[in-house]
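Blinded run. Sample ID left blank on purpose so nobody reads anything into the name before looking at the predicted structure. Input follows.
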Amino acid sequence: VSSFLLIAFWHHRKASRAGARKAMVITVTGGISMLAGFLMLAQIAGSFSIRAIIAMDGLSSEALFIPAMLCILLGAFTKSAQFPFHIWLPDAMEAPTPVSAYLHSATMVKAGIYLVARLSPIFGGVSLWFWLVTGIGLLTLLWGSFNAVRQTDLKALLAYSTVSQLGLIMSLFGVGSVAYHL
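Blinded prediction complete.
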């Protein structure tokens, strides 16, 4: 809600209101998906503690493991502006410049990246995790780079270069997850 209010600061602008709505719908939908994934993961593990879940063996054989992983990844991809959910980030640039910088440098976009990093020990040995995180990350990297080069507005350039760098980080976490399989 706070990011919605920050993006819609200039509420008299149609683009500002549209960007705020888009960011709200995409990130809230991802947050609800993430919550569902965490609840499924807690159901199969019997704990909400990440340390306790990492210490458990045989979680990947549970029926809810893959749906939990997919729900959590959907939430992480929406929060970290991964393709095709990246569309909220350039539109969030309608916010005043300090607010736009805040959205890029702080909580919003790094939450999904941190989540993938933190949960890689749990899901890292699963090939679907590797392919989804790496593939979506690379696609986001290329799409963000391609769009960044075409921008003439400095804020849009910043937004798409941020999308590209988030894709790079995500793809590196995907490639690094192979180490958990060894």
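Unblinding after everyone has recorded impressions. The two ends are 42 Å apart (CA to CA).
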